[in-house]
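Need the bound structure for heme C, inputs here:
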Amino acid sequence: MMTKHLTLSNYIKLQLILSVACFCLVITFLPASAAQDNGDALYQYYCAQCHGEKGDGKGINATEDLPTQPKDFTSPKNLPVFTDEQIVNTIKQGGPKEQLSFIMPPWGDILSDEQIDVLKKLLRKICKCQYDPAAAAAAAAEAAKQKQ
Ligand code: HEC
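Answer from helper R.:
Posting the output first, comments after.
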């Protein structure tokens, strides 16, 4: 005769099914949350004090006394002049290694290559721009003119 009560073996089966279901949920959502880590936390911690919370160059350390101001990353004009490699190298080794200001510190001892790559991608997202050789050539010509 069938009983309506949950027998012990059925109870164990139910528990097993539920724990497998939970495990599958965890597996499904873990990589998704990792993928959502777009570097914003890193940026806010290490970069925002100079480059600004939104990347507009208006961080609390970017006072008028700085000999070189951080540029506005939200403008489509500034980052296209740098290749991805130059951006990575600037973050890793600091401004002077890419003929930029020493005010931009080197982060290679603090951040991993993966974290620097994530930050580079975040900056490309903030400026909604990629490297543009024509913009780079125009900027180089302008800099050469100013030196004369
Ligand atoms: C102490 C202030 C300061 C901090 C902190 C700082 N930067 Fe900079 N950064 C600068 C300044 C100033 C420049 C501009 C250098 C120039 O134009 O000569 C710069 C330049 C750059 C550039 C080159 C592009 C450009 O606009 O010249 C990149 C890329 C960059 N910073 C990324 C970062 C990232 C990513 C972080 C955080 C890991 C960071 N910076 C933290 C001050 C800072």
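Comments: The radius of gyration is 25 Å. The helical segments are 8-35, 40-46, 48-51, 84-93, 113-127, 133-147.
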